[in-house]
Design a protein that fits this description.
Strand content: under 5%
Radius of gyration: 16 Å
Structural class: mainly alpha
Helix content: over 70%
Order of helices and strands: HHHHHHH
Largest sheet: none
Number of helices: 7
Distance between the termini: 52 Å
């Protein structure tokens, strides 16, 4: 009985995390549309910790970056710095994760050059193009195919 319960809870937990990642991906796609959507995206990721180790770390970094767009000029730099730290921490610890590279690439492509965070664009594009044929998650694959 305990074994069945453990199997059920593990399976249910995996299902919920897959659902959660799916909704985070969708929220990331639309977070650029407004301050409210960017705020809601960040709220979805508030509980993510650096020790989490999942791709949600990169998404939390992206959320900081997206919120920086709506911050007063005096707060933008620290918001961007914080977001960069989250993204870079994830990519450093998971250099072969295509989704983390996707998040970093899309942030770097859309951040103003003056922010000084654009050094990995070519590297990440090539990495994603190389890894694309091996991606089996259909939602992720669709996101990656938008890279030009």
């Amino acid at each position: 009985m305990k074994t069945r319960l453990l199997i059920f809870l593990t399976t249910f937990s995996l299902f919920l995390s897959a659902q959660s990642l799916s909704s985070i991906r969708e929220a990331y796609r639309t977070a650029v549309d407004s301050k409210e959507k960017a705020g809601a995206f960040f709220d979805d990721l508030k509980s993510v910790q650096q020790s989490n180790g999942t791709v949600l770390m990169a998404y939390k970094g992206a959320a900081y970056m997206l919120l920086a767009k709506y911050e007063p000029l005096t707060n933008k730099k620290s918001q961007i710095k914080n977001g960069k730290a989250w993204i870079e921490s994830y990519v450093k610890n998971n250099p072969d994760d295509v989704e983390g590279r996707f998040v970093r690439l899309t942030i770097q492509q859309n951040l103003p050059k003056i922010a000084g965070y654009s050094q990995n664009i070519d590297e990440d594009k090539e990495f994603i193009k190389k890894k694309l044929p091996t991606v089996t998650d259909s939602q992720l694959k669709k996101m990656l195919e938008t890279i030009k």
